[in-house]
Q: What sequence folds into this?
């Protein structure tokens, strides 16, 4: 009985060991499979990052689906997507502007649920840039029916350029392989690089069903004052078969709208009025600058009203504020605008606040500063000096010899002529003004400085006299 029990015990021990070995082998195989899938996913992510950073853009249409929260599956067919992003967006042009507005909801957006909680930092950064740009472009398109097409294009271009700028700022601040376009320092070349990389430059629809718009995470404010209209040859010239050289678009250089007068600003409104420009519209081309011309006329009328209001200290604030509101109301009249619209005019509920916020100088702090008076200013004031503030001796040599020179050469020329003039005046037997005679009694070193003060005093008087006769400035440069 002893050998039998020994045999039974030995057999049971062998079965237990075999079962344990089988379980260890099964667990070992499972761990190996798990390791291989994790490694495969890591290799796929590395390949995707390598492809994105070296310009290899996937042409596969994007299907935006929320990620699944369920347990992971080990089947190869259920591996997660690569989370592609249609990046970058193309430059807005007159050819694709209509598609930008028409197909906005048929291009992808990328909500936070599109990506896993961790990883895919490069794609998340690009998705945010696309979301912001599309939101800003939609804002430009909302008033497409009430704006000139060129103003809408200007707005879209500003939005796109800002999205590129913001993306590169974030991209270059992160330690990862930077997008190759962001490495370009020249802004124009950088923008062209982004535009050339766009997988959908025509802004055509790529989604089957409309997508839900997403709010932007950064602020965009359209500045219409930077817009300019291009214009070609006149129709009559084309009909006659003439070759007309297209004029280069010119930039608006006008401070519109003026700020609203308040108790805190009325002193500056009145005191610095002579330092603020008024505008001439005679210099404007016959077409293409209707908005600039209307703005210039409005500013001129407001400044004319301010001049009258500032004569009475007791009523100057109420008078100036009334004139400001009156002229901006006229500016917004449909018959004055024609096809040119200004977005503050559309905001009837808070129109005046909109104008105040849009003003480049709402508190009347930025005015034309007094120019520094130097001896070289004689080139601009010698005629006024001769007529209004004569110094008693000729300034012809300064004008003929120094004024044609470059600015840095004028100073040396003026100093040399001042020395020569001092010697001639003091050595001359002709009658000279009393002031000059006093200078000649000084030492030879002090005489040129003394005569220079006489000339500088005349230049200052002539400069102030010219500023009082306010000249109209061209509103484009």
A:
């Amino acid at each position: 009985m002893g050998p039998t029990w020994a045999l039974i015990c030995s057999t049971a021990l062998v079965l237990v060991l075999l079962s344990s070995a089988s379980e260890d082998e099964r667990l070992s195989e499972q761990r190996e499979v798990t390791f291989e899938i994790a490694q495969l996913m890591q290799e796929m992510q590395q390949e995707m990052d390598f492809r994105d950073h070296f310009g290899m853009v996937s042409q596969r249409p994007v299907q935006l689906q929320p990620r699944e929260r369920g347990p992971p599956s080990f089947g190869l067919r259920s591996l997660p997507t690569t989370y592609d992003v249609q990046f970058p967006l193309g430059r807005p042009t007159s050819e694709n502007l209509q598609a930008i507005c028409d197909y906005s909801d048929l291009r992808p957006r990328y909500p936070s649920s599109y990506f896993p909680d961790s990883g895919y930092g490069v794609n998340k950064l690009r998705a945010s840039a696309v979301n912001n740009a599309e939101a800003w472009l939609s804002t430009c398109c909302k008033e497409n029916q009430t704006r000139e097409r060129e103003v809408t294009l200007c707005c879209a271009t500003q939005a796109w350029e800002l999205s590129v700028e913001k993306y590169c700022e974030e991209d270059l601040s992160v330690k990862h392989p930077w997008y190759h376009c962001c490495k370009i320092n020249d802004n124009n070349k950088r923008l062209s690089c982004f535009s050339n990389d766009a997988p959908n430059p025509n802004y055509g629809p790529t989604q089957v069903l409309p997508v839900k718009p997403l709010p932007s995470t950064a602020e965009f404010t359209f500045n219409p004052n930077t817009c300019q209209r291009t214009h070609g040859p006149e129709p009559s010239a084309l009909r006659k078969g003439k070759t007309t050289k297209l004029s280069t678009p010119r930039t608006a250089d006008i401070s519109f709208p003026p700020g609203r007068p308040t108790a805190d600003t009325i002193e500056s409104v009145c005191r610095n009025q002579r330092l603020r420009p008024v505008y001439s519209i005679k210099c404007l081309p016959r077409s293409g600058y209707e908005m600039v011309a209307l703005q210039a006329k409005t500013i001129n009328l407001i400044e004319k009203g301010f001049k009258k209001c500032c004569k009475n200290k007791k009523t100057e604030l109420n008078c100036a504020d009334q004139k400001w509101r009156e002229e901006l109301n006229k500016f917004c009249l449909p018959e004055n605008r024609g096809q040119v619209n200004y977005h503050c005019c559309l905001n009837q509920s808070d129109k005046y606040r909109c104008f105040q916020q849009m003003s480049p100088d709402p508190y009347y702090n930025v005015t034309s500063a007094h120019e520094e008076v130097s001896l070289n200013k004689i080139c601009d004031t010698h005629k006024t000096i001769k007529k209004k503030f004569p110094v008693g001796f000729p300034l012809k040599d300064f004008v003929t010899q120094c004024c044609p020179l470059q600015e840095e050469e004028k100073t040396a020329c003026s100093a040399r002529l001042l020395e020569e003039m001092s010697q001639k005046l003091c050595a001359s037997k002709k009658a000279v003004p009393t002031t000059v005679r006093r200078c000649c009694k000084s030492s030879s070193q002090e005489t040129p400085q003394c005569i220079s003060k006489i000339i500088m005093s005349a230049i200052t008087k002539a400069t102030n006299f010219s500023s009082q006769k306010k000249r109209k400035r061209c509103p484009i440069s």
